[in-house]
Amino acid sequence: MAGRRRQAGVTMQDVAAIAGVSIKTVSNVINGYPYIRPGTKERVEAAIEQLGYRVNLSARNLRQGRTGMIGLAVPELSLPYFAELADSVIRAAERRGVIVLIEQTNASRERELEVLHGQRRHVTDGLIFSPLALGTEDRAAFAVDFPMVLLGERIFGGPADHVTMSNVEAARAATRHLLETGRRRIALIGSHEGETVGSAALRQRGYEQALAEAGLPVDPALLGEAGLWHRSTGAEAMARMLDAGTEVDAVFGLNDALAIGALHVLHARGVTVPDEVAVIGFDDIEDAAYASPPLSSVAPGREQIAQTAVDLLLARIAGTAPDEHVEVITDFAVVPRESTVGAVRPAAAASPVVA
Amino acid sequence: MAGRRRQAGVTMQDVAAIAGVSIKTVSNVINGYPYIRPGTKERVEAAIEQLGYRVNLSARNLRQGRTGMIGLAVPELSLPYFAELADSVIRAAERRGVIVLIEQTNASRERELEVLHGQRRHVTDGLIFSPLALGTEDRAAFAVDFPMVLLGERIFGGPADHVTMSNVEAARAATRHLLETGRRRIALIGSHEGETVGSAALRQRGYEQALAEAGLPVDPALLGEAGLWHRSTGAEAMARMLDAGTEVDAVFGLNDALAIGALHVLHARGVTVPDEVAVIGFDDIEDAAYASPPLSSVAPGREQIAQTAVDLLLARIAGTAPDEHVEVITDFAVVPRESTVGAVRPAAAASPVVA
């Protein structure tokens, strides 16, 4: 069972001869195809076992100088937004017959440089990269000799093709939605004081624009700092704000994880949502729809981002993309749910989920 | 900016000569190191731009015939358990100086075979693989000539090293926890009727053992079928059971996603948790702690699984693992939260989160 050693020179022919079947049948057994005659599979497996045969991967040559694989580098898979983005990219690539290898950078500068210049760029035809540590000041590091599509809000103006979302406009729409439900003391959770680039700065700008349109000032007491945008940091920012006695009638979490952290603290303090405090997030991750109460959010077109990034990258790899780098900005939609607009109870026997 | 063409033969020396700096300085700029004298970085960037220099990755040779990369293949990253497992494996590998390339199989048989026999096995030194479609009947497909550690409950008895959890015992403990809080009508959400292997069968066995110990029968009306273990399928199973008029005072979701789906339906129907129905999940994903109410769960030792799998694989790659294949079963712990034991409200000013 264990500790078998590969025997040099054993081929699929040898296995076929011992098992008394064709090479095609050996290949079918190894590749797990169904519809193999009873007894045949067992004979082939016995021959494989007896000879210590192993599939010789290194004999397979790459066609066309391409690997059929693309890289996707994201900060953290434990953040649902990036896990769901990865899932969407994988499915979009699969529809085009391409495999995705995923790398996680932990938002570390060193790891992000390694993504750009490390040896695993040998094995992919191109890269979809959502940097979080590197930014506009690192333009030289983005000078790479392989096709690349950038995601996110860290670097603009073209070292590569770029797919991004309408951060300012989407955040303004989320804030307007809270204002339209009569809220006036809207906490912003996820602020990054002093930053002028990146998602936090852009989304906060949208929040401030919506307040200005409504004739409301920006109250610094309502700006909740959170470094990384996790559930835990959202909970901490919400708790600090409540502990400080800040009056709040609504919360805009700059992503859904922060908003879910805020919901957690409101629940623990016995604050009712949305009666006392309305809450909206950003990203529309699957968690949002299943939160209790279901969390309103902004859907930033994740499927469109993934599909566009894959299409752009494959066009760049195939040499059919335009000479100039392309910047694509995806659509968004506010998704109102119970956390801002209250419960819409179904009739007793019907379920909103199964319907 | 765009459409630049790489000039053949341009070297780092050329860039250094044009910029009037050392090769080391060019390398530092390209690799994004801080502490470069003002002006120097701009000169190097201008020279890179002028010459069309690109880092030549293909010139870097692999050392020792190893790539320093391992593969991790999981069914779905959009399932938080696998996203968090991937995160844990990446961090464990990073502590050992190894990069992880992640692949998603979508629980497809074809994709799982491709993981075992596809060309990307050229580029990794070994594989950590959590199969969901392949099983014990596919032993031949697991005959590979590279180091591999299996995760999960699909295949036992040794085609490779194997790290798994105490499914039966952990599920029994979760069910006992519900029985100890006085529950008697415990719905099981996530059942796979007719299956005798895999997580569903093992966890259901634990549930049945706990009921038997308490002298309770297994009521088929309380077994909620769910194919894939998603939030949506958990919600559907819960809704079907309630629609059928089945009396329920507790729910055991065979994973947290199923339990969160059930919580969602209970919330929508106005059923209070845990007063009317107690709910426990399995996996202890981060979502569980942040659910409203916070979801009790079983922590299956995810960090230990990741660390053990990485250590075993690296030992196998280095040739220091035992000849016989190893099977490691990790510890578990029931984590009681509000969804089974009710609220423990903090003092007015204190926060359970910040504390």
Total number of strands of chain A: 12
Largest pleated sheet of chain A: 6 strands, parallel
> What is the CATH level 1 assignment of the largest domain in chain A?
Alpha Beta
Ends distance of chain A: 51 Å
- Mean pLDDT over the full residue set of chain A: 86
Looking at the overall shape, the CATH architecture of the largest domain in chain A is 3-Layer(aba) Sandwich
Weakly predicted, low-confidence segments of chain A: 1-8, 56-63, 346-355
Number of helices of chain A: 12
Strand content of chain A: 5-15%
- CATH topology of the largest domain in chain A, anyone? Rossmann fold
Largest two-chain interface: A-B, 100 and 99 residues
What is the assembly state of the chains in this entry?
A: homodimer
In order across it, which strands form the biggest sheet of chain A? 2-1-3-4-5-11
Rg of chain A (CA only): 26 Å
The CATH superfamily of the largest domain in chain A bears the name Response regulator
Could you state the order of secondary-structure elements of chain A as H and E?
Answer: HHHEHEHEEEHEHEHEHEHEHEEH
Portion of residues within helices of chain A: 25-40%
Structural class of chain A: alpha/beta
Label the overall shape of chain A. Answer: elongated
Q: What's the domain count of chain A?
A: 3
